[in-house]
Fold:
Amino acid sequence: MIRPDAQVLLEIRDLHASVADQPILHGVNLTIRAGEIHAVMGRNGSGKSTLSKVLAGHPAYTVTGGSVLYRGEDLLALDPELRARRGVFLGFQYPVEIPGVSNLEFLRVATNARRLEQGAEELDTFAFEDLVRERLAVVQMDPAFLERSVNEGFSGGEKKRNEILQMALLDPLVAILDETDSGLDIDALRIVAGGVNQLATAENATLLITHYQRLLDVITPDYVHVMAAGRILRTGGKELALELEDRGYDWVDAELAALAPAPVEVG
Amino acid sequence: MAALSMPSAVAAASSWGSELLNALTAEVAAEPALGALRQRAAQALADRPLPARRQEAWRFTDIAPLLAIPPALLAPGATVPATLPAAAPGVVRLVLDGHGDPLVGVSLPAGIEPIPTAELETLLLDRPTDRGADNGFRHAAARAAAEAPWSGLLAAATTGQILALRVRGVVEPTLELVSDAASAEGVLPLRVLLILEPEARLELLQVHRAAAASLTTVLLEARLGSGARLSHGLIGQGAGAAVLLADLAIDQEPTSHYAFTSAVAGWALSRLEPRVLQSGGAATTRLRSLQRVDAQQIADQHSQVRFEGPEGGLDQLHKAIAAGAGRSVFNGAVAVPRVAQRTNAVQLSRSLLLSDRARIDTKPQLEIVADDVKCAHGATVSRLQSEELFYLRSRGIDAARAAGLLLRGFCGEVLRELPVAAEIWQPLAMVLAEEAPRP
Structure:
């Protein structure tokens, strides 16, 4: 839903970042307002996952230039846990298995950390169980997964459902979903996408990072951005995704070649 | 190694050893009932050098914290009454102070009875050694002195009291054996002997605590008859300069099941030596252990499992957390001689290194002669995984709490196998060194 007067939630300006001294992002610009769904598409290595990790504050990534404002606040100055508490959520491409840590407890601790930030009361174990059982319905998840260790032994589809369950509990204002569709069969994709659609409101925004059009068949983006060589090369509506599906990514190479060589960043 | 090869260190250790023997032999006369047992063990000790890092079994374990305890204190002395938490429901508690009779004023649960002194002396002393496994205690430290670990001999030489129990049938309550040296200095010598008759079942929880420059020595011998099941937990909660040396010698007859879970933290030096002998194979053994070291602490787990018959099983998991400048040692010996065909043994060691100054030495020691066996082993040493930490932080959980959750997960895998009665001792808080009041 595009409303030009909606609040700007995330404003990325000329963002440069590197990992292990290797520059990956070369000046990303992106503005996201409340109510919008954005899709960032691009080939492997185009920098889309790096963008998501940088926004979430992964310590292995270093920002070398530019800025990110989240509701007017310098997002990059915040530790990852503070970003999450303020309402920035990253759905992982590969959710991490944590043996020995109960999924239910993990979800409760995370939910309470966010609630405290929102000025709400912490939930005790009983109140939280009520809440989590209600939110399970968003992704049609079996309650048995609450009793297991975080993501341990979950199938690919179960892990992604668990991610969306976390999103449903944490009530983010900006949800960045990194390749949420990867590894899902068509049924699981519909369930997960259905969850994302249910959670999208006029107050929050979603940034989908994906390789394929098929996710966008079930979640309709307001904007589609094509990323290549660490920059957003082109922005359009949902028809841009269809064009990509149609023409493949080869034209991106042609367009890249027409530009000046990508600047080499040092430091 | 370098430090101990210095002449002054050798001299100091050697003089500590002779002072120790003087202290021990001076005491023997005063305890006629156990005198012969103790004397025999003291003699065996005299024939042994003190543990030193040139010996393979002590290669990674510096006994400096033990040598720091004045040997004169190692003769049994007075104990300080400790404040213990109330026993959990369904638990029969025996408090061991090294001297007094722990059975005074206690009604033992159905199925457990004391072994009379005369029989005990026969069991431990009088049978000729060439009768082999006749009495089932082939491990018994006093009889097989040559094989007994030094710490077991020390326990045998210092003990003033043996708690000897026979178990028949299924014992419902958990038997809890508690010692607490509290702030007392000196030695707390404990010796326990258990006979589980065929088909007997017992859950046993040992708890040893100390907070001062003291030495707790534990020698526990148990014999499991055919079909017997012993579920055995040990919590070692130390502090300050306290030292714990425990020798656990278990004899298993075929079709018996022995499960041992230990959690040890806080000692200046601790060494646990669970030694399991499947005398005819065909038994199952499950070992779970967790130790944490911090500051300058040393924790050592030396386990031995020996199969003397076919179709035995072992499932072993050892875990360690090393923080500060702590040192953690694990040596897991598994002996599968030719008679032990179709043995199935798995041993895993997983260690977490939380500091650059900490050190972990972990060593599987598999001696496999039989050819038709399945024996697997593995060892990992790692830091807290940065991806796991980031995942938790990205959900709003701060770094310290995230690390705590990961540590709890790491510990939980072992701690959940402790007897339920262990809960009141707060083993998790103990291992995580959290600010929990001593119960």
In short: The domain at 8-94+172-258 of chain A is CATH 3.40.50.300 (Rossmann fold).
